[in-house]
Design a protein that fits this description.
eight-stranded antiparallel sheet, six-stranded antiparallel sheet, 35% helix
């Protein structure tokens, strides 16, 4: 979940590193630090500060700034040890300085061993233990030392390493944590993700597990564990730096909400060929897809809510049974999966640790796996049997919006295709569904036009201590996502309930002026949801109703109504989520919260 970056080349490295970290801060912002081979004193200078990257940058500007052509940097999401200057990366022991993303599961055993060898530790982190282990094992040969050390380490790691006696060289290795190598003529980079390097190069190499990279000013070598050099394919980024900039918006999140119509177009339009739906998934023909008798969808957080919608619509369109699992629970309940099943893993980053573990469990049982991911070449994409790329482009804000939109769109594409090949949809139904899906970007644009109206509702509710969301069917799924967005951005306590469950306990929480946001876009469930609204209204709730343009609403029920465009009911999640995203955004801004960097969170959860 942390972000690491490194540069070695012909230019001063500090600005490169700070710029790279600024594009990785979504991965963690508890602290930041750099280590540089300082040409002024021929030593490794380490500077690190607790807090956001701005504190480190300001300190470097106003105090001693190291100068050199080789360095590494880190922005932290704290796991072992609270956020502090001391626990910040880089870590140094003896001859070794490093930055680390991941978790070392057996660090205590290694630490106790090293203490017996007279090592002392200045931090509470597992990462410092790795630096000490490398120093203990160091025999003058960095490659042999890294190989030997990683044989003793259990867990996940991406490491950027400097050895004091190997000036202007960066060594890097990864295992279950992301790391790429940026390539250009006058230098090379390491980074956790593409946004850190895109300003400087569009060429990168995907480092595989336990491959070792050696970067210097004029060369780049990648070695396997037998010390054999590997020729790696160079990949090219197909978007430019402007896609990772705010472009006039106050926050990345607002920009990404507004980008949702285009993101969905990029996801769905290329998959319609001569008015027919072609998913274009390698290794997954229509014949193969039609053979699955049961589907399991596994995901975390927002991606899981997309999976819940997937369950509704796949079963609705194709009548194929679907189970939905939280990835962190999937492995540990000993799931019943068989070779005739399909396991779908949904992950924006393609690096989510729990989802990756679930994928590997499914593969170990011989079950076919399909990854729905945004990041090309990510671990989940590479390890799955087939991959469906969502093509959302970079999403920088920690709270997911456009990635969720295209995950849902992917589910609709898959569900419609399954409905057709299972012969559960007539030709007329199939054609109508395809046309409705292609019109969704227009519906989203119409909702975005209500932004100022949504801001007025946020001004009514932003001082609330608790807010509840209710809905039925797919509206319940959207209630869950709306509640999640609100709590992660504004820190207001928020819960979502299936509206029919209110009488079974949650209604006890309703008292005078308790805010309730009710989503009611399903015509066949509308009357039932209205009855549930009446129940909370009778107990003093202040209700905001989100409904269709033409819905009939009793004036006495609520005076807070947000009407959205009408479409086929089953498609409403694709655009009914947008006002809830905007509501959460405006509420957080009004409360003075850091919208793009919510406390305690990180964009990519690469540790369990």
């Amino acid at each position: 979940m942390c972000g690491i970056v490194g540069y070695v080349g012909k230019s001063d490295c500090v600005n490169f590193i700070l710029d790279g970290l600024s594009h990785l801060e979504y991965r963690g912002y508890d602290s930041a630090g750099i280590a540089v081979f300082d040409k002024d004193d021929n030593n490794i200078s380490i500077i690190k500060k607790c807090g956001k990257l701005s504190k480190l940058s300001e300190y470097i500007k106003t105090s001693h700034c190291p100068h050199g052509i080789c360095g590494i940097g880190h922005t932290r999401w704290a796991t072992h040890g609270k956020p502090s200057d001391n626990n910040s990366h880089p870590h140094h022991q003896g001859n070794v300085t490093l930055v680390h993303n991941g978790i070392i599961e057996n660090y205590l055993q290694i630490k106790n061993f090293l203490i017996e060898k007279n090592y002392t530790f200045k931090t509470e982190t597992d990462s410092e233990v790795v630096s000490a282990l490398l120093d203990f094992l160091y025999n003058g040969n960095p490659i042999e030392t890294i190989i030997e050390a990683t044989k003793k380490i259990e867990g996940s790691y991406a490491l950027g390493i400097l050895f004091s006696d190997q000036p202007n060289k960066i060594y890097a290795i990864r295992q279950n944590s992301p790391l790429i190598i940026g390539v250009r003529d006058d230098g090379n980079f390491i980074a956790s993700d593409v946004p850190a390097i895109i300003k400087h190069t569009n060429k990168y190499i995907l480092l595989d597990h336990k491959e070792i990279a050696v970067l210097s000013e004029n060369s780049l070598k990648i070695l396997d564990f037998n010390k054999n050099e590997i020729n790696k394919k160079i990949s090219y980024v197909d978007w430019n730096i402007s896609a990772a900039e705010k472009n006039g918006f106050d926050h990345f999140m607002l920009k990404e909400i507004y980008e949702q119509p285009d993101a969905i177009k990029r996801c769905i339009n290329p998959r319609f060929v001569n008015e027919d739906l072609e998913l274009g998934i390698q290794n997954l023909s229509d014949e193969k897809l039609s053979s699955f008798k049961k589907i399991h969808i596994v995901a975390c957080g927002t991606a899981m809510h997309a999976g819940m919608i997937g369950k509704y619509i796949i079963e609705h369109f194709s009548r194929i049974p679907v189970e939905i699992d939280i990835a962190s629970e999937f492995r540990y309940r000993n799931p019943i999966i068989s070779k005739g099943d399909l396991v779908i893993i949904i992950s924006q980053s393609g690096e989510t640790a729990d989802s990756l573990a679930a994928l590997r469990l499914a593969k170990s049982k011989g079950v076919f796996t399909l990854a729905i991911v945004n990041v090309v070449g990510s671990s989940i994409a590479r390890e799955a049997d087939s991959v469906f790329y969502t093509w959302a482009g970079p999403e920088i804000s920690v709270a997911s919006t456009k990635a969720f939109a295209v995950q849902m769109a992917s589910m609709y594409l898959l569900a419609i295709k399954l409905g057709k090949i299972s012969n559960n949809l007539s030709s007329e139904e199939y054609k109508s569904l395809c046309e409705t899906l292609k019109d969704i970007p227009n519906k989203i644009e119409q909702v975005i036009e209500k932004n100022k109206e949504i801001l007025k509702f946020s001004k009514i509710f932003y001082k609330s201590k608790d807010i509840f969301f209710i809905g039925r069917g797919v509206d319940y799924c959207i209630s869950l996502e709306g509640s999640l967005k609100l709590k992660e951005l504004s820190y207001i306590h928020s819960e979502a309930y299936a509206a029919g469950e209110l009488k079974h306990g949650p209604i006890s929480l309703i008292e005078e002026n308790t805010p309730v946001i009710a989503i009611a876009t399903q015509s066949d469930l509308y009357a039932k949801t209205i009855s549930n609204i009446k129940e909370v209204k009778a107990r003093g709730a202040k209700v905001l109703l989100l409904c269709n343009e033409n819905s009939q609403v009793d004036d006495s029920l609520t005076d807070l109504i947000l009407r959205i465009p009408e479409s086929t009911d089953i498609f409403s999640p694709l655009y009914s989520i947008v006002p809830l995203q905007l509501f959460a955004y405006h509420t957080a801004v009004l409360r003075g919260c850091d919208v793009d960097k919510p406390r305690n969170l990180a964009k990519s959860v690469t540790v369990e």
